[in-house]
Amino acid sequence: MINNIRIGKKLYDLSTPKVMGIINTTPDSFFSDSRSFHIDQTLIKVKKLIEDGADIIDIGGYSSRPGADEVSINEELNRVIPAIEAIRKDFLDIIISCDTFRGIVAEHALQAGANIINDISGGEIDPTLYDVVAKYKCPYILMHSKGTPQTMQSLTQYNFIFKEMISYFSKKIELLTEKGITEIILDPGFGFAKTVEQNYQILDFLDEFRFLEKPLLVGFSRKSMIYKKLDISPEESLNGTTILNTKAIIKGASILRVHDVKEAKQIISLLH
Question: What is residue 30's predicted lDDT score, i.e. its pLDDT?
């Protein structure tokens, strides 16, 4: 498995796993503590994430939780671009990822100082996103999902889920490579168009994705696969998150996408 990613002219080493801290400039993300509506509030949260050890800040303006409300392009731009500009101004060296599936938002984000595009749709919702990533030669997080946030949870039917995911990633990697996009990170998409049981099946064979020779990102943080199984709330799901992140690191994950950076960094410190 490839354990590095090129960001600009720098080769970024992933042999020791990295932690991506989550910032949501949305009013309806499922975990309320990740929400941030004002620039000052966002900068305070980013400062805390960095102090706790975040290697990457992932900022999004369109909630991707199942059933989330539709957000206009202008609203998404207004939520994320000023935030990215402010983060880049105050934290010159931090790596910024923009969580978007829209090409126009991705382009504005990269112009504002973002380094990575994190696409929950794999280019399915807006194919122009690939052209933007190719133009800016930035890393691209390719996630497995189906449908949109409004429809994904009705699309959980698979014959052989692992086989279908491998086919999906293989075809997407081939298409991206043809477009000149080679810095690709794979995200199995825990919670996206998958039942609770399917999420755990994927975690069990996570190490099998290694043969695709791309770094793996996982995002379990406080998700329903934890709190529904344990019959608790997202606010009570840190312990479950830590357990699943630990298993993911053992099985080869290179990046943990989390709300709770300090705890994720502790996992990596103990295992590496």
Answer: 44
Candidates 18, 45, 223, 265; catalytic one: 223
Q: For the segment 161-171, what is each residue's pLDDT rounded down to a tens digit?
A: 999 999 999 99
89 is catalytic: no
Ordered by where they begin, the domains of the chain are 14-271 (3.20.20.20)
Distances (CA, A) of 194 to 17, 66, 200: 25, 11, 10
Q: Which of 79, 194, 214, 257 is catalytic?
A: 257
Name which residue leads in pLDDT, 235 or 38. 235
Q: Is the dihedral of CA 67, 72, 78, 81 positive or negative?
A: positive
236-249 tens-digit pLDDT: 999 999 999 999 99
Which residue intervals of the chain are DSSP H helices?
Answer: 39-51, 73-90, 103-112, 128-136, 161-178, 196-204, 224-230, 238-250, 261-271
Q: Is 102 a known active-site residue?
A: no
